[in-house]
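User: Show me a protein chain along with its predicted structure.
Assistant: Here is one chain, sequence first, then structure tokens.
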Amino acid sequence: MKLLSIAIPCYNSEAYMEKCIESLLKGGEDVEILVVNDGSSDRTAEIADAYAEKYPTIIKAVHQENGGHGEAVNAGIRNATGLYFKVVDSDDWVNEEAYAKILHTLGELVRGPETVDMLISNFVYEKQGAARKKVMQYRHCLPVNEIFGWDSVHMSKGKYLLMHSIIYRTKLLHECGMELPKHTFYVDNIFAFEPLPFVKKMYYLDVNFYRYFIGRDDQSVNEKVMIKRIDQQIRVNKLMADIFHNCQFDNKHVKKYMLSYLDIITTVSSIMLVRAGTQEALDKKKELLDYIREQDLWLYHKLRYSILGRAANLPGRGGRKMFVAAYKICQKFYGFN
């Protein structure tokens, strides 16, 4: 059995997918690379098949009708045979030295006495044209090089685990029953959220493994694109609120972390709606909070009256300007978008 299955969701990715695949091939026979062609109209399918033919024991090409990023991840999970599972987007890549350490650590954990559900590592914002690269690391939030539970997680405000940080145990993903929605952007937030109550044991390896490319004009995290697709961001936000509401938490620490994550996602929705600058967008902002209030009054109060929630709902045009100004400062500091 392979140690690690890696799914690469690809849609019209001919221009950059080879760089991604080549970086992952360095894992050799310990890995299974699932290149998921999500109904592409360019040479993506041809490239995937060529790699699968050249590396038949490592690479598998999976072809499907277009279902969006979430359905491509779903296909990866369905086809994964490795003990652990990771998603690497087709315009991203991994660091070779960190990759070797990841695989070595996974091997040691598999041979150890405890079952680790999630391995966490750092990622780097590879922002096009940026003078410095922002590293998302967790050394002050998580124990390093040891197995730990949720009671040892101490995330500061604004710090959270993204898909790029996470490797899950494959069987856990099957057990939790997560099914990402089709034809929806921003579902990586659900991927990094819904399985968490099933995660009992974690391990943090302080290496800069994942390289997250930012800079394409058509990229889903581009601010102008996010505003254009704001209905999809809102849909994901509502789904995450539903997941939280329906979860039977048996650990207060994972509940606290997931609440903080949902607070951030709701703030992102709010800032994009404010940035849109239309009355329709402001109405959608109110409707989002109304939806959460109707579903779960306790959750609504936690989100609406948190520090971020209060900032997102400062009254009047002046309040919205202050909110946007604060966002721009964070944008510069954290290096996103």
